From TrEMBL:
The keyword Coiled coil does not apply. The basal body constitutes a major portion of the flagellar organelle and consists of a number of rings mounted on a central rod. It comes from Treponema bryantii. GO terms for biological process: bacterial-type flagellum-dependent cell motility. It is found in: Bacterial flagellum basal body. The keyword Transport does not apply. This is Flagellar basal body rod protein FlgB. Structural component of flagellum, the bacterial motility apparatus. Part of the rod structure of flagellar basal body. InterPro entries: FlgB (IPR006300). The lineage of its organism: Bacteria, Pseudomonadati, Spirochaetota, Spirochaetia, Spirochaetales. Belongs to the flagella basal body rod proteins family. GO terms for cellular component: bacterial-type flagellum basal body, rod. Keywords: Bacterial flagellum, Cell projection, Cilium, Flagellum.
Length: 138
């Protein structure tokens, strides 16, 4: 896979995750006064980093040839396209007496950060396509 395709794929996946993160944060904010409601977050970047690191490690690792699907696979990279975002429920904290752990101010701030991140990702995507357009004109 060439670097342009990989960059666009990663940007698109991150935009999807950012959209999910926005929905989860908006749900947290909407339920900030519901008794015993627990806030959720989205975990994606740490798994993505692990997958990309495993690809780099597999390039320099010792490779074994397998002739059967039942053979033990060694140093098989974790494909970044298999990484999926996960919603994580925060059961460990309680911020209010009613058992709810959502801070409306923090969630509103998170929404602003998510919106700025999404805007940045769209600009990066546009920049990638502008570079291709410029290269094609020359």
């Amino acid at each position: 896979m060439n670097s342009f395709t990989r960059s666009i794929d990663l940007l698109q996946r991150e935009m999807d995750v950012t959209s999910l993160r926005y929905q989860v944060t908006a749900n947290n904010l909407a339920n900030s006064e519901v008794p015993n409601f627990k806030r959720s977050t989205v975990n994606f970047e740490s798994e993505l980093k692990r997958a990309i690191d495993s690809e780099k490690e597999a390039q320099n690792a010792f490779h074994l040839t397998t002739t059967d699907s039942r053979h033990i696979q060694v140093n098989v990279p974790y494909d970044y396209r298999d990484v999926q975002p996960h919603r994580v429920l925060d059961y460990t904290t309680t911020a209010k007496a009613n058992g709810n752990n959502v801070d409306a101010e923090t969630e509103a701030n998170n929404i602003l950060q998510i919106q700025m991140q999404y805007r940045m990702l769209t600009q990066l995507t546009s920049f990638e396509f502008d570079q291709v357009s410029t290269a094609m004109k020359k």
